[in-house]
Automatic annotation (TrEMBL):
Record-linked HAMAP family: CofC (MF_02114)
Reactions it catalyzes: phosphoenolpyruvate + GTP + H(+) = enolpyruvoyl-2-diphospho-5'-guanosine + diphosphate
Keyword Transferase: yes
Name this protein carries in UniProt: Phosphoenolpyruvate guanylyltransferase
Positions annotated to bind phosphoenolpyruvate: T153, G169, S172
Annotated source species: Streptomyces roseoviridis
Amino acid sequence: MTTYADRYAAGTGGGTWSLVVPLKPLARAKSRLGPAVGGPLRGRLALAFAEDTVAAALASPGVRDVAVITDDPAAGAALAALGARIVPDLPGAGLNAALAHGARAVRAVRPAARVAALNADLPALRPAELARVLAAAGQFGRAFLADAAGIGTTFLSAGPGVELEPAFGGASRRRHLSSGAVEIRLTGVDSVRRDVDTGEDLAAAVALGVGPRTAARWLPAAG
């Protein structure tokens, strides 16, 4: 009998990268977005962001598979339906612990995997732009992409045999630089840098062009 691990090891795409995408329980996700969109819509938008992120990632030619680290059953079911592997957040110790756990889960199946952490709130993500970032990251042992503000991080990679060492949150660009990761300096990859935490971020993502799930939930509400 073919197991899930067999199918996951074989990969769902033609690329070489396994992506690790963390997602909080929807009831707690995107708290800073609440004032702009309202409480009832906040969780639904957080899921839509993640769905559009995962769908675009799986469509990227550089991506082999996506592991979503979440304990939210509704989000897990929706993202699994798109083709993601769902990994429970067993550490339950915050974002960086979840990412390190996800990287270990990937390498338990493929020990020599190229692994990258990717934010779950990239609703404008373009597969071709992600592929360019992955190609650049493949030249280094560890590499990262700063967010649109140049303060945080939306992407962190580790090549075969290299630990991910995530240091996300707040001024993570500086921490990743200090840890020895190489900053990826590409133009024309705005969709990979545009994470959404606030109403202003959401407006910027909409201007880039958000994915269909985010558009379906937000554009009618925005009028």
